[in-house]
Amino acid sequence: MTSSYETSATPRGPVDSSRIPRYAGPATFARLPRLDEVGGRTDVAVVGVPFDSGVSYRPGARFGGNAIREASRLLRPYNPAQDASPFALAQVADAGDIAVNPFDINEAVETVEAAADDLLATGARLMTLGGDHTIALPLLRSVAKKHGPVALLHFDAHLDTWDTYFGAEYTHGTPFRRAVEEGILDTSALSHVGTRGPLYGKQDLDDDAKMGFGIVTSADVMRRGVDEVADQLRQRIGDRPLYISIDIDCLDPAFAPGTGTPEAGGMTSRELLEILRGLVSCNLVSADVVEVAPAYDHAEITSVAASHTAYELTTIMSRQIAEARAQEKAAK
After folding, report:
1. Does the model's pTM come out above 0.85?
2. What digits encode the pLDDT tens for the residues 238-251?
3. Which candidate, 150, 119, 121, 141, places its Cα nearest to that of 47?
């Protein structure tokens, strides 16, 4: 789909780190221009949602977006793993934060959905930085308005398909049950990746399967390898519009200690990045990286992993935008 950003325009890229030190100046994602600096029109909008009122254990993910931005100062404009310069292929800009009510979850969910609607209406795809996983529901609602029910790849230690916590329907452990109930997911193409750890009971898995989710555990990734896992996911997704939601706790606490509900036995950051690189042929329409809680981090380990994860996702979207434009041009 062509963005509202002019196809003939040369994208404005990040600040030149050979002239201005990486540690100088404001921390936009990858040192990219702000949305207002590109006329409010972009192909990929990187947007933060500083919200963590839906957490069930340790708070702090409201600070995740800015921590990821700070860690992203070290990102460079050429991605050798994908042989692409994402910020030259498409206009990527930092859209700032969606300011949400920290005292009213229902209102916060509505605010995120409305803001996402506005950004998607410009033709942009979203690369959202959380925030806790509650925000995935309003983001999926917004994306489904544009694309219809979407395929979902959910990278997480946890299922996030529980019914309620303390009677609350909107929490970071319930977004994907709500999304299935609302009909905004394509239930023939749903997968969890990286799940592990104890559950409340076997019924959790039974309920999850009834919703249509397939599961690739972190142990599966270790035993089967990233290439086989990526191939399985590609086959399940097909050419459907795809949304990828990544809870940073899909990584082992050795690679992502800065998160609210860590679980032992997770994936390595290398495994996560390689699986994502194997999904470049999928139709990625938007994505999020959530649950980075920098207060529990060490030496920015978690924020660095999250920034590289968002970089790979942004590269995939930029490549697809550029390829679509090239095809349109050739067809004229």
Report:
1. yes
2. 999 999 999 999 99
3. 119
